[in-house]
Amino acid sequence: MPLLCLSSPKGGVGKTSLAAGLAFALQRAGRQVVALDCDPQNALRLHLGMPIFDGAGYIAQLQNRPDWRACLRTTPAGIALLPYGETDMRGALATASAIEREPELLAAPMRDMLADPSLIVLADTPPGASAVLSVLAPQASLVLAVLLADAASTALIPDIESGRFLGRGTMGSLLGPKLLIALNQVDRASRLSVAAAEGVAAHLGPRLAGAVARDEAVAEALACQRPVGLHAPGSRAAGDISDLAAAVLRELPPPAPPPAPAPQPVSSPLFPWVRQ
After folding, report:
1. Angle between the 15-28 and 216-223 helix axes, to the nearest 10 degrees?
2. Domain range annotation of the chain
3. pLDDT tens sequence across 150-194
4. DSSP per position, 141-153
5. Whole-prediction pTM value?
6. How far apart are alpha carbons 33 and 203 in whole angstroms?
7. Cα–Cα distances in Å, from 64 out to 4, 40, 58, 105, 121?
8. Can you say how many angstroms the Cα of residue 253 is from the centroid of all Cα atoms in its chain?
9. CATH number belonging to the domain at 3-251, selected among 3.40.50.300, 3.40.50.700, 3.30.70.100, 3.30.160.20
């Protein structure tokens, strides 16, 4: 099972909306997806149709070592989800501290998830440096950093390329080609947004996995608690996310082939009762 981590050097870039849209697009492309919400905001569930007052989760209970299989939820969007779970600031800090102190709390169940090569785990991680990302990144097949197409995000590119936004100066070199970037909310009506997107594309070259247009359909999809590809499949954002999913799939290991059927015994043409 390959692991895809969505990250961002700062909040407010639409990372969780993109995570939901990408999970749906990957599943629509024929891959089985498990979405793992590692962000204490616990918002990925809302993008996938779970009830607002449903506080069940996985990461928030990690100190109790829950069985991740028992925590899996099937969402109305049809995607398997491990929600973060309902918590407050003190609980979120305690969970982050526990993961930092004992990384195996998360690393061990993640290895168990990754044992199935037919599935993709898509992890929505907290913005900025985090204990969660430091544990997951070494196991990831791909880390996708999400930026806005604006001047502030453009200024963060050196932090992304060096790995400083991951909290470790050497993480960028350790990840190497596993670290790609996606531009979100590119506003074609804004000369500044287009210029920023073009500048980032020219600088990053093949490390730019894709760009997603600014589209009101994304906000409408969240209001309806659906991924944009399900809510408005003909929208520009849905098309861009589908293209991004195709780019991601090119970087991920292919799905495992189904096991070959066991050979059946063949009768001898001369002696039918003899099996060869």
Report:
1. 80
2. 3-251
3. 877 777 777 776 666 665 555 555 555 588 999 999 998 888 888
4. SEEEEEEESSHHH
5. 0.87
6. 32
7. 25, 17, 10, 9, 22
8. 15
9. 3.40.50.300
